[in-house]
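Researcher: Predict the fold of Rab GDP dissociation inhibitor.
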Amino acid sequence: MDNGKVKAVKSDGKLFRCKQLICDPSYVPTRVRNMGRVVRVICLLNHPVKNTQEAHSCQIIIPQAQLNRKSDIYISVVSYHHNVASDGMYVATVSTRAETRDPEKEVQPGLDLLEPIMQKFVSVSNLLVPNDDGKKSQVFVSRSYDETNHFEQECEDVMDLYRRVTGSELCFRGSKRHQSHNSDED
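Model: Structure tokens for Rab GDP dissociation inhibitor follow.
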């Protein structure tokens, strides 16, 4: 940093000069604040989720009101059919915003829908957001992944980063992909 503005990044002992830095929160822990915790459980299954008509993929949201919680529980399932797992296998993620000191217990209603679970991997991570917009320092920091599994917040974060970095809105209208998609519909 020079006069509060980014000038270079140091990596593996080497200095790389830059005018802007765009990164996730893990690279600049002093430029972010914690807004809570997210619990995620990745589960390996050898069967489709019950009551989904043997679906190869599904998304389930358990509403917070149904569980007397402040946050919904999100379940996403993909399978061998999508080339993300071995033949006959399914990968499920269950996540929510942690509200207690026992986050794994908080996702139990989602885990119950997946039983029997062959193996599970539990992680609890902080939900980090940038302290400022980055315009003064030219250090533009994204948010960390939230508890949802539909990537709405991440898409909004990308558009916000683009707006902060360039000063203009990210617009897909007029792009070749958008034009070809529209012409196929016409």
